[in-house]
Specification:
The chain is of the alpha+beta class and 968 residues long. The protein has 31 helices and 27 strands. The longest helix is centred in the middle third of the chain and has 27 residues, at 543-569.
């Protein structure tokens, strides 16, 4: 029996939200939000349990996180190991979980017609899970592997260092991931059995009254209510008291300190942190949102604007972080230049000067009202997102807010209360601050080591008077509050679209550009999407050109920032990014003021000039980015090498890094006019924009760039329409490329085992997709759950400019990449028999799942535009791809799938084309030496030099062809 059906206060929802909501409380005190959406293709659920890593028993660090892993294995009702994940994956869904300090969240989505059984399997996590001894030992290894991948991540290291420098008796201080040491070695030394402790932790803490469930379904509310009552009423309720973590984690010894930290990556960073009153206690007043908006502002007169003008900083963010119900922190993060690193005291002084300015100005009602209006528009015109993301957000909110605000959370500050904002502002004081200063320059100048990640650091005390001195000696710059935001949309009306347009149409074509256009007839929001793809042949004709193009796009963004930042605050987002063949401009958001921003961007491109001081800053930033590539995860390195081998027109980043030190502002000043001298602009405009507006935009671009008396750009010659082409691997050969990991301190090795199959073709596509759907979970189960090769283990499709294949990606400390390659082949051999033994009902079920996935509707304009833009960018132009592939799937027979597997995927198949990219971590460097010197086996081919290999291989034809072939 459910109670609480009739709400005293209605749940606040967006004006555009057509979904139905109902709160119920089951007889076991489980609080549930039911969501009915007749338009959804996917159903989803999220269970938030108010037990997190802060609840870990002393000496069993990571136990809550380990329990989260273990609940996925099996239950009394469904005892077959991994059958839950298999069911979800095979029916078009996905599943995951995360453990935070105060709560743990479990979630999944699935095709709508399979939701009932999936929900039943999910409910068993919380009713009678099986946590076998065998699975326990294997999953401790998975947790350890997850921790291994984080050990050289600056984000994880800094997070733990902040925890480490807090009160030892406070839960915030804990190490929460867990590893082999905390979950196996240490408990065993104390005579503890980890599995017994796990079962005890679950029994004592997982109680229905500490859980919140969100269920998102296609069915009506009455039907889903009956379903939820039936599935979840058996969850035990022990009336467990909720956990709370009172007291501040930082005592006086942890405040008024500067912590010098040695990071893994190049670069300098300041992280200024204050313990504050949690915003959740005053979420309608939004004190942290107000202060974060001002301290993190980037317009003229802002702290960032001044630091940028001085050449000291490249980014700044401000706001609440690491928050809980009982304690919280306000954090300002500033990325410094080399010059900024030398001016740390001035920068901290300027920050406190800006805080002092806020104190003197008082809390401004017009700023709060403006922010409140922006938030209100954002809430009421929010895009629909994936149900799986939606349920996680709400389940987390249910823990924190009263029912009427479950959908809103803290996103609608509406009560102007200066004293609440003033309280938090007063907490941002010199005697309450912790400053974390990261730089490689501190190497060999520290005296302490954080125990879990072995981060080197040292602590210095600072006093309020020291910071006062820094404020007085800081440059006397004109800091001031932001101006009123001219980009806030005031016209949110929808344009009249007379015809139902299903696909983009080629609206306009000239020697200078093409315009693809699709008005919004589906989402009915006052938003638009604009993509301008500049094809400039000179942009990618050498590593030097590539890096100069990157600096050019960064500089355009840099020049626009103080003006266009207001647009992003108001919900109009923009980006300018380099491509292999030029650069792209993207605008997405409210359409009302989009035209104004677009004109400004085009003008900046047309009138581009190199400012030497900004060139120096951007060059330094790009140099560090390239230097830090070597600290990428090994699996990311393997994927990079795979792309470098396959993609004909790609330059290695190592060559760009070699060129960077020698580049001067003058090089860019010569390069940009050359790059822009020949150009073609491919445009896609969609959303709440009429066709004549779209045509005017493109006409304006042509007028400014191509048609002035001394034009910046001229049209391309037919021979200059460059396309991306992909290397064709040899049938019946297994290529392999081995290389040592770029970071000598990284123990992890990685493998990308790639099988190249075909050039885009509907029938071959669906055969490949069906194989990937059926093989994905068995691969994960065998290679990760059973063999425990590594936390990162995935089988997925790959698409390089329309050339399709499948890849298995594994990162491991357990085995070297050569050994992992053998395990992948062993898996494919065992999978072969599973494919042959599949019943016709199982085959049909898998086909139907893939059809459902293909027919899933786009949820918002950005998602739809991304789909159509990919077709335009790759030149495939198959806007009806989904419908055509569904038609192909309906014709597909089981024997045809088996024949496809035998021809393209099966180990030893005569037409199979494979490439194994092996990155060897320091644990397996001896394997590298041995495997590198072994004779090459028959049927294999070793790639010694990527560029010789690339130039010796034929290429697949490109879909792009000449733009002249595109017909109006």
């Amino acid at each position: 029996m459910a109670v609480g059906k009739g709400e005293v206060e209605e749940i606040v929802k967006a004006r555009t939200d057509k979904r139905d909501y109902r709160r119920i409380v089951l007889s076991n005190s489980l609080e549930v939000l039911l969501i009915s959406d007749p338009d959804t293709d996917k159903c989803a659920a999220s269970m938030d349990v108010r037990v997190g890593a802060f609840c870990d028993p002393v000496g069993l660090e990571g136990l809550a996180h380990f329990l989260e892993h273990m609940l996925f294995y099996a239950s009394e009702k469904y005892p077959l190991e991994d059958s839950y994940s298999k069911y979800i994956t095979e029916h078009g869904g996905s599943t995951n979980a995360f453990t935070a300090g105060e709560h743990t969240n479990y979630y999944f989505d699935i095709n709508a017609d399979c939701f009932e059984e999936a929900l039943d399997r999910f409910a068993q996590f919380f009713i009678k899970p099986l946590m076998s001894a065998d699975a326990t030992m294997r999953e401790i290894k998975a947790v350890d592997s997850e921790n291994q991948k984080n050990l050289l991540s600056d984000a994880w290291r800094m997070n733990q260092l902040q925890k480490h420098l807090s009160h030892e008796g406070h839960s915030y201080h804990k190490f929460t991931t867990g590893n082999w040491d905390t979950l196996e070695v240490r408990p065993k030394a104390k005579g503890l059995d980890t599995r017994d402790e796990l079962l005890k932790f679950y029994a004592e803490n997982y109680s229905a009254n500490l859980m919140h469930l969100v269920v998102y379904t296609k069915e009506n509310l009455d039907k889903v209510q009956g379903l939820v009552e039936e599935k979840f009423r058996e969850i035990r309720n022990t009336d467990r008291n909720g956990f709370c973590f009172p007291g501040q984690p930082c005592t006086s010894e942890h405040l008024e300190i500067i912590v010098k930290v040695v990071p893994i990556k190049q670069g300098h960073k300041l992280r200024i942190v204050w313990p504050i009153t949690p915003e959740i206690q005053h979420y309608k007043e939004g004190p942290c949102r107000y202060l974060g908006h001002l301290i993190g502002h980037e317009g003229e007169g802002s702290l960032f604007y001044i630091l940028k003008t001085l050449g000291w900083a490249t980014s700044l963010s401000a706001g609440e972080g690491d928050s809980s119900l009982d304690f919280s922190f306000f954090i300002v993060v500033i990325e410094l230049t080399d010059a900024g690193h030398e001016h740390m005291q001035d920068i901290v002084g300027l920050l406190f000067k800006y805080i002092s300015l806020l104190q003197q100005s008082g809390v401004c009602k017009w700023i709060f009202d403006e922010l409140s209006a922006i938030c209100e528009t954002k809430f009421h015109y929010q895009d629909k997102i994936r149900p799986i993301d939606y349920v996680v957000n709400i389940a987390t909110n249910m823990e924190l807010y009263p029912p009427k605000d479950w959908l809103v959370g803290s996103s609608l500050p509406s009560n102007f209360n200066p004293s609440t904002i003033q309280t938090v502002l007063n907490e941002l004081s010199p005697n309450n601050v912790r400053i974390f200063w990261e730089s490689k320059k501190f190497e060999n100048h520290t005296d302490s080591v954080e125990p879990w990640y072995e981060t080197n650091y040292s602590i210095e005390r600072i006093t309020s008077s020291t910071i006062q001195e820094w404020m007085q000696s800081a440059p006397n710059e004109n800091l001031h509050l932001p101006a009123p935001n001219v980009f806030i949309p005031t016209d949110l009306s929808l344009k009249n679209v007379h015809e139902q347009v299903k696909f983009p149409e080629l609206l306009r074509k000239s020697p200078y550009s093409t315009l693809w256009y699709k008005p919004d007839t589906v989402f009915l929001t006052p938003k638009a999407f604009v993509k301008l793809d500049f094809n400039c042949p000179h942009a990618g004709d050498s590593p030097k050109a590539e890096v100069l193009n990157e600096i050019f796009t960064e500089l355009i963004m840099d020049y626009l920032n103080e003006y266009a930042y207001y647009a992003s605050v108001a919900g109009l987002y923009y980006g300018i990014s380099p491509t292999d063949r030029g650069f792209q401009v993207t605008l997405v958001g409210y359409n009302h003021k989009l035209w104004i921003l677009l004109k400004t961007i085009v003008k900046k491109i047309a009138r581009f000039e190199v400012k030497p001081d900004r060139f120096a800053v951007i060059k330094e930033m790009v140099t560090k980015k390239y230097q830090n590539y070597k600290f990428q995860q090994p699996y990311q390195q393997a994927m990079y090498y795979c792309s470098l081998i396959l993609e004909d027109h790609s330059w290695p980043w190592m060559e760009s890094l070699e060129i960077l030190p020698h580049l001067e502002a003058d090089d860019l000043a010569k390069f940009v006019p050359l790059m822009l001298s020949r150009a073609f602009v491919e445009c896609y405009i969609s959303g709440n924009i009429e066709r004549n507006e779209a045509e005017s935009m493109v006409q304006h671009i042509e007028d400014i760039l191509f048609k002035e008396s001394n034009p910046v750009c001229q049209p391309l010659f037919p021979s200059q329409h460059l396309t991306n082409r992909v290397v064709k691997l040899e049938k019946g050969l297994g290529y392999f490329y081995g290389v040592e990991g770029l970071n000598p301190n990284d123990e992890n090795s990685a493998l990308v085992h790639y099988i190249q199959v075909h050039r885009d073709d509907f029938m071959l596509n669906v055969k490949l997709q069906l194989f990937a759907l059926i093989a994905k979970q068995p691969a994960f189960h065998q290679l990760r759950s059973v063999e425990q090769l590594g936390y990162i283990t995935v089988l997925m499709q790959r698409n390089d400019f329309g050339i399709r294949g499948v890849q298995v990606i594994i990162q491991s400390t357990v085995k070297g990449p050569g050994q992992i390659d053998l395990r992948v082949e062993a898996f494919l051999k065992t999978f072969e028999s599973k494919l042959y033994e599949m019943t016709s009902d199982e085959f049909k079920s898998n086909v139907n799942s893939l059809i459902d996935m293909k027919l899933e509707k786009h949820k918002n304009l950005r998602e739809e535009s991304g789909f159509y833009w990919r077709e335009i960018a790759q030149g495939t132009l198959k806007f009806d791809r989904r419908e055509c592939e569904v038609a192909a799937l309906k014709q597909l027979t089981q024997q045809e799938l088996i024949d496809f597997f035998n021809e393209h995927i099966k180990v030893g198949a005569p037409r199979k084309k494979t490439l194994s990219v092996r990155v060897y971590g320091n644990k397996h460097s001896s394997d590298y030496k041995v495997e590198n010197s072994e004779p090459v086996q028959p049927g294999s081919a070793k790639i010694d030099d990527i560029y010789s290999f690339r130039s010796s291989r034929p290429l697949y034809g490109s879909f792009k062809g000449s733009f002249g072939h595109v017909k109006l």
